[in-house]
Backbone:
């Protein structure tokens, strides 16, 4: 999960970079503009089909309170549902944009406010706000309120809510994806309703193997979900045994798991992160779409 140690690593990494060493290197004119716009691809692949979507803020009863969330889905028809768990800075415009892109690919996406017990979204307006002393201090008690059991209760409530929506194809499995602190939440969602969750994806997820009885990797034996686990290079350098523990657990449970260390820093998939790496984020995005298409 993002913490001050991770941020110090990322700041050091950013300081070592120069424009000539970045993934997009030297570009000019329209090519440079395309590279800097989130979701705009500079590739030879055919342009993806973009489905018209409809969005709204919704409120979902949970055993603890009422959670607010951003719900976006194709305007017409019934579609597989996705629960998206944001990073440490919470539900904000960046994650609305990321959720919208996934909906345009044909999914009914619920982007949740994991801090709903403490405040409605947006708790913070950007990732950079968390990096300030004030932002960090504000989130500290909110993070403490999110326990493994609380996340499990939330996930069950979100799944039930989605199953009651006309925009969702209830005959299809549900997917879940999470970023940073949202990574382990995908495991808890998949474990609480293994009959409904067909695939999970964790991007630079923190504390997937944390040495506690509630460690997310210990839930793998309960899952019926394919797993896409994308690990940041600096997370792997600090905790190289995590990928091994995840692979061992997946093999023991005979569960499908794609576990990859990406040449990018913790936070590389989040579009407002200082270490957002468009090239590697697009690679991870493509694997997400393949996983969901294959298992939902």
Residues:
């Amino acid at each position: 999960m993002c913490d001050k140690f991770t941020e110090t690593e990322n700041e050091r990494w950013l300081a070592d970079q120069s424009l000539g060493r970045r993934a997009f290197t030297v570009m000019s004119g329209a090519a440079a503009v395309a590279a800097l716009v989130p979701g705009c691809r500079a590739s030879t692949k055919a342009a993806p089909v973009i489905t018209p979507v409809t969005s709204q803020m919704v409120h979902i009863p949970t055993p603890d309170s009422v959670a607010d969330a951003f719900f976006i889905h194709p305007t017409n028809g019934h579609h597989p549902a996705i629960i998206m768990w944001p990073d440490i800075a919470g539900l904000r415009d960046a994650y609305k944009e990321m959720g919208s892109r996934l909906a345009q690919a044909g999914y009914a996406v619920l982007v949740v406010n994991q801090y709903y017990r403490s405040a409605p979204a947006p708790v913070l307006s950007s990732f950079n706000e968390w990096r300030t002393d004030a932002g960090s201090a504000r989130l500290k008690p909110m993070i403490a309120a999110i326990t493994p059991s609380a996340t499990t209760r939330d996930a069950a409530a979100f799944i039930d809510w989605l199953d009651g929506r006309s925009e969702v194809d209830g005959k299809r499995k549900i997917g879940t994806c999470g970023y940073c602190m949202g990574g382990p939440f995908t495991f808890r969602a998949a474990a609480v309703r293994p009959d409904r969750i067909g695939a999970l994806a964790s991007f630079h997820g923190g504390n997937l193997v944390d040495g506690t009885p509630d460690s997310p990797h210990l839930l793998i034996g309960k899952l019926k979900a394919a797993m896409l686990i994308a690990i940041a290079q600096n997370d792997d350098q600090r905790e190289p045994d995590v990928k091994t523990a995840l692979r061992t657990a997946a093999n023991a449970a005979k569960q499908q798991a794609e576990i990859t260390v990406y040449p990018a820093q913790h936070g590389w998939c989040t579009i407002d992160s200082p270490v957002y790496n468009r090239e590697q984020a697009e690679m991870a995005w493509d694997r997400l779409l393949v996983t969901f298409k294959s298992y939902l």
Remarks:
- Confidence is low (pLDDT under 50) at residues 18-44.
- Strands lie at 53-61, 66-74, 81-85, 108-112, 174-179, 197-203, 226-232, 257-262.
